[in-house]
Every structure is written in C-alpha cells, then in structure tokens.
Amino acid sequence: MPKQIRLIRHAESAANVGLATTAPDSIPLTEKGQHQAEALAQSLTSIPDLIVSSPFVRAEATALPTAQRYPEVPSELWAVEEFTYLSPSRFTSSTQTDRKPHAESYWKNGNAAMIDGPGAESFDHLLGRANAMLAKLADHIAQDILVFSHGQFIRAAVWLIKHGECAGSQDLMRGFRTLDVREPFGNCWSYQLVFNDGRWTVECQLDASGQGRLIDGFCTA
C-alpha cells in the first residue's frame, strides 16, 4: 500500500513579515499565521496516522491546531528544523533585511561543506538531515503522515528525491538557491509525497488552500 506524506511549511512568522528576531528556534507566528494554521487544520479531509513537527516554535504552533483537531493521533518532534546557515550569535535581534547581504554572500560562495559558526550547519548537513527524515518516514509504520517543517528543509527533501546522489556539488547548491528564489514556497504550502515499492515520488505541490500546483518542473498537479 502506498505511503502518503505531506510536508507542510509553517504559517506566517514574525521573521516573514520583517520583524527583528533573536534565535531561529524561538520565532513566533504572527496573528495572521495563527489563523493560517487553524484554517489548514480545518481544511484536512482525512485523519492522519501521525503528526510530526520541527521543534522550532513556529512549526509547533502551526501543527498545534491539527493536533487539537485530532487528539487521538500521535504527535512527535523530529529533527526537521529549518536550515540555519548563518551563525545565530552573529545576528541577534536582526531582521531578514539585515541578514540579506550575508545570506547572498553565503549562497554565492557555494561551499556546501562550509559552517558559518556556532549554531550553523553546512548545506551538506542539511541534505543529510533531509535524507535521514526520508529514511525514517519510509521505515515508519504510519501510512499517512503530516510533517510540519520549514521551507528550505522541505525543498532539500524534494531536491534529494529529484537529484539523488548528485546533491552535494557546488553547482547544485547554487541551483537549489536559484530555485528557492525563483519559485517562493509560501507559508502553509506543502509537497505531497508518495513512498511505494521502495521509491519516493513527488506527486504535487499544494498551496495554502490545498490546490495542486505545477511547480519546479517536476511536480504533477
């Protein structure tokens, strides 16, 4: 029986609207984000077997209304947090605008093994975490799983499914960034994955309303 996985990006956060934040793991949802999370929970048409969340505040808060709607469904925290490629200690109380030139420099450099400093991880490590999540999902007994995570982490998992063993080169790191900038992945958007006969397939990308979209050149609506 095919296994259904939905990778869901968190709802709108304080960082998404340009507010200053302190640590990547403690960024809260905005009031709009809270409403988005509630709407997402009400839009679900089937009861999942498992609800997974990143330990970051904005992901847990997005998952909460779904967990409250289905209290009988087990919830777990997994290492599916966002890609922190800039050392948080360097950017305390900063905004996305403040960090933008440093982020652009990081991606332009294209060093997949580089670690910016304490609390940061390399692009290769991001891919390793995404790969570990896919393996854990594949092995899990649950057949219908919701994963509340973050944009670049979710994109990394989809990237691995598309590119496989090639996904560590500098060119592909830059390609990943190009896609991330060209095709923004909205709050509460998701990818629907299927695992069947030992193989992952990306079925479609869904927007916040649950409508299928043809995105990234390899998803089918």
Describe the structure.
With 221 residues, this protein is an alpha/beta fold. Helix content is 38%, strand content 17%. The protein has 6 helices and 7 strands. The chain has helices at residues 31-43, 57-69, 96-109, 123-139, 151-163, 170-182, and strands spanning 3-9, 50-53, 75-77, 144-149, 190-196, 199-206, 212-213. It has a 7-stranded mixed sheet. α1 (31-43) packs parallel to α2 and α4 (123-139) crosses α5 (151-163). It is globular. The model is unreliable at 217-221 (pLDDT under 50).
Layout of SSEs?
Elements: E1 3-9, H1 31-43, E2 50-53, H2 57-69, E3 75-77, H3 96-109, H4 123-139, E4 144-149, H5 151-163, H6 170-182, E5 190-196, E6 199-206, E7 212-213
Parallel strand pairs: 1-4, 2-3, 2-4
Antiparallel strand pairs: 1-5, 5-6, 6-7
Helix pairs in contact: 1-2, 4-5
How many β-strand stretches? 7
Tell me the radius of gyration.
17 Å
The sequence of SSEs as H and E is EHEHEHHEHHEEE
* Helical coverage, percent range: 25-40%
Assess the beta-strand content as a share of residues: 15-25%
List its traits.
7-stranded mixed β-sheet, 6 helices, 7 strands, 221 residues, single chain, alpha/beta, globular
Short description:
The protein has 221 residues and is of the alpha/beta class. Helices cover 38% and strands 17% of the residues. The protein starts with a strand and ends in an 8-residue tail after the last strand.
